[in-house]
């Protein structure tokens, strides 16, 4: 499984936002979000819509440095943020504008990012997965069913590993602890062929690759559940998942690989 096409990420920003909108419009905006304890559904919607607008504005302006969020038009939210319908419409407007900016730019336009690549492609992928994971937060808060296309779920895991590796290389104190020779973690989706990742802890850093090999600890189960657990949206023994081996090493990884 490789990176998805730029147009697919743009499509998914719209698709995932549409599904998120349904959850937001059907919920009390004060409903707490257990996977983001400081937020309620209103806060979650404002975060996603603000992120979309921020990324879209930087792509539209071909930004060479980070744009202050308070300079992004419309990022503060709708006039009545306590109205679920207004929140939903505001989410859609931001997603449509961002997808349009990304399509107009194409994948190779140079633009500021906080990460390893300075292209508009980064923002298309990041905003797609940002929405995938936060849609899970809304589903978990409201008790709704949740599923993701296998290639999109797998790419969410791959992007997450790239982000944690980037954070470690940049000196993030928690990610820096993800080292220590001779240990490994195997993520194994049992329902999707080749959706496997082997994380190996080296003396100075961790590395990862797509492989099926015996590891110090393995987390096995359905891909959607695996993706949610990797993003700390599900416990490793929920959703049909099973831990084989050193559970302490899995917990060590999950506690120190948080981002976003």
Automatic annotation (TrEMBL):
InterPro entries named among the record's database cross-references: DinB/YfiT-like, Maleyloyr_isom, MDMPI_C-term_domain, MDMPI_metal-binding
Domain spans labelled MDMPI C-terminal: 151-251
GO molecular function, one term: isomerase activity
Keywords tagged on the record: Isomerase
The Mycothiol-dependent maleylpyruvate isomerase metal-binding domain, residue ranges: 15-139
Any Pfam family: MDMPI_C
NCBIfam families membership: maleylpyruvate isomerase family mycothiol-dependent enzyme (TIGR03083)
This protein's name: Maleylpyruvate isomerase family mycothiol-dependent enzyme
Organism field: Streptomyces salyersiae
């Amino acid at each position: 499984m490789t990176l998805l096409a730029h147009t697919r990420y743009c499509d998914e920003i719209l698709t995932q936002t549409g599904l998120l909108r349904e959850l937001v419009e059907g919920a009390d905006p004060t409903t707490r979000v257990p996977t983001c304890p400081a937020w309620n559904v209103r806060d979650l919607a404002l975060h996603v819509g603000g992120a979309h607008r921020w990324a879209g504005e930087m792509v539209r302006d071909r930004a060479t440095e980070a744009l202050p969020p308070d300079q992004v038009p419309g990022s503060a939210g709708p006039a009545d943020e306590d109205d679920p319908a207004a929140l939903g419409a505001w989410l859609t407007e931001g997603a449509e504008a961002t997808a349009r900016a990304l399509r107009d730019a194409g994948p190779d336009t140079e633009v500021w990012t906080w990460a390893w690549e300075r292209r508009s492609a980064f923002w298309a992928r990041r905003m797609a997965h940002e929405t995938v994971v936060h849609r899970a937060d809304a589903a978990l808060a409201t008790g709704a069913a949740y599923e993701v296309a296998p290639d999109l779920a797998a790419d969410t895991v791959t992007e997450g590993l790239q982000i944690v590796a980037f954070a470690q290389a940049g000196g993030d104190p928690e990610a820096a602890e993800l080292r220590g020779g001779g240990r490994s973690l195997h993520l194994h989706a049992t329902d999707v062929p080749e959706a496997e990742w082997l994380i190996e802890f080296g003396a100075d850093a961790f590395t990862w690759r797509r492989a099926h090999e015996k590891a110090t600890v393995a987390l096995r189960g359905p891909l959607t559940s695996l993706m949610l657990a990797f993003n700390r949206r599900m416990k490793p023994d929920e959703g049909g998942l099973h831990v084989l081996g050193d559970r302490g090493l899995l917990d060590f990884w999950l506690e120190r690989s948080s981002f976003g």
